[in-house]
């Protein structure tokens, strides 16, 4: 293998696939980057067995200044190789691989020789040929991920809850996540998509994917029996799927309420953040919200026996229903409010011990719902 390339473009490709590489893998060759040189260009691959990322540096793109003299492939240690390429002195660089897998990297007056591994021993990426696909704009898919992944569980005791449940049926995409203490659900209408599927994608995979999505480009999602593939231009992102049946969450969101309050999300978020300064100093990390519709008033209180207490009166945009005092984890509320963004939010309560919901005021179809379970304090 022998080629020369514009170094900055090569670094962009290395950075993309390096997201999937971990030094903790039990398969030594996966600590390396696989490099394939063909007529199409340079294909870079990184994997940790759970996720795999592959990107093509196209030879037809003149901005890459790519010239391939000899096709071939090699696997090089990711961390060291990446550091070398980033420190090379000139904008152009060249690579050549000898028969003993030693790789010579040159740029300007610098020359490095790195011991590589036989690329034929690198695990093959899954072949996903399916008509089960859906295409979304990058900004929408990124939004769906950010709105749902906050509610996935971090507890491996229930691995199925560490993922986001995606279901496509009757031209509607449903994404939902829950850790049994809170739930986040997003619905998106896809009128031109007739596919049907029901899968659970690990939350960690989706978080990594969201960092790579260009909000101005489309993302295509393809599914096989145990893998999902996301296509973004010349980059492919593979993830395993979680096995099992996701809990039925359709009955968890209440249809009615006895107390309703409306706030500007940023204003309520700021008040919750102030109250959480005290709750974080306490063992139970709980704050209380008291709602008095008759007085058009909402009060937030927090208490830490070791530090002190906090009390803040809030003026809601609207409030109606019965008086209510309810306790909850402020971190759950903060995550929910951040996911709603700069909007007006309706919070609907049923009782002090029943889950309550947060919805954007303008969302009359309940396409985006956050649900939080209160904390019993007596």
Automatic annotation (TrEMBL):
Residues 251-375 form the DNA polymerase III beta sliding clamp C-terminal domain. InterPro entries: DNA_clamp_sf (IPR046938), DNA_polIII_beta (IPR001001), DNA_polIII_beta_C (IPR022635), DNA_polIII_beta_cen (IPR022637), DNA_polIII_beta_N (IPR022634). Residues 1-126 form the DNA polymerase III beta sliding clamp N-terminal domain. Pfam families: DNA_pol3_beta, DNA_pol3_beta_2, DNA_pol3_beta_3. One of its GO terms (molecular function) is 3'-5' exonuclease activity. Forms a ring-shaped head-to-tail homodimer around DNA. NCBIfam families: dnan. Belongs to the beta sliding clamp family. Confers DNA tethering and processivity to DNA polymerases and other proteins. Acts as a clamp, forming a ring around DNA (a reaction catalyzed by the clamp-loading complex) which diffuses in an ATP-independent manner freely and bidirectionally along dsDNA. Initially characterized for its ability to contact the catalytic subunit of DNA polymerase III (Pol III), a complex, multichain enzyme responsible for most of the replicative synthesis in bacteria; Pol III exhibits 3'-5' exonuclease proofreading activity. This is Beta sliding clamp. The lineage of its organism: Bacteria, Bacillati, Bacillota, Bacilli, Lactobacillales.
């Amino acid at each position: 293998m022998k080629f020369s390339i514009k170094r900055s473009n090569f670094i962009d490709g290395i950075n993309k696939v390096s997201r999937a590489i971990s030094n903790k893998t039990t398969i030594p060759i996966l600590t390396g980057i696989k490099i394939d040189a063909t007529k199409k260009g340079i294909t870079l691959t990184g994997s940790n067995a759970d996720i795999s990322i592959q990107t093509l540096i196209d030879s037809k793109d003149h901005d890459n200044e790519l010239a391939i003299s000899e096709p071939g492939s090699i696997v090089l240690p990711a961390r060291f190789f990446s550091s070398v390429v980033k420190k090379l002195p000139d904008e152009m660089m060249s690579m050549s691989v000898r028969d003993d897998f030693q790789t010579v990297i040159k740029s300007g007056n610098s020359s490095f020789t790195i011991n590589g591994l036989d690329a034929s021993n690198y695990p093959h990426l899954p072949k996903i040929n399916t008509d089960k696909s859906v295409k979304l704009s990058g900004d929408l898919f990124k939004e769906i991920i950010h709105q749902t992944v906050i509610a996935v569980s971090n507890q491996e005791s229930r691995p199925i809850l560490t993922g986001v449940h995606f279901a496509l049926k009757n031209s509607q995409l449903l994404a939902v996540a829950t850790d049994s203490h809170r739930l986040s659900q997003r619905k998106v209408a896809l009128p031109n998509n007739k596919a049907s599927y029901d899968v659970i994608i690990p939350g960690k995979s989706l978080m990594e994917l969201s960092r790579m999505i260009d909000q101005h480009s489309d993302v295509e999602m393809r599914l096989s029996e145990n893998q999902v593939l996301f296509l973004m231009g010349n980059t492919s992102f593979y993830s395993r799927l979680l096995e099992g049946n996701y809990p039925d969450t359709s009955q968890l969101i209440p249809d009615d309420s006895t107390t309703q309050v409306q706030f500007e999300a940023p204003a309520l978020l700021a008040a919750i953040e102030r109250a959480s300064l005290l709750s974080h100093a306490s063992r139970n990390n709980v704050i209380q919200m008291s709602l008095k519709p008759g007085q058009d008033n909402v009060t937030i209180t927090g208490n830490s026996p070791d530090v002190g207490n906090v009390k803040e009166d809030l003026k809601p945009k609207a409030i109606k229903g019965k008086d209510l005092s309810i306790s909850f984890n402020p971190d759950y509320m903060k995550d929910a409010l951040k996911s709603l963004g700069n909007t007006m939010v309706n919070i609907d309560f049923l009782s002090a011990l029943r889950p309550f919901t947060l919805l954007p005021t303008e969302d009359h179809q309940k396409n985006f719902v956050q649900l939080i379970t209160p904390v019993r304090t007596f």
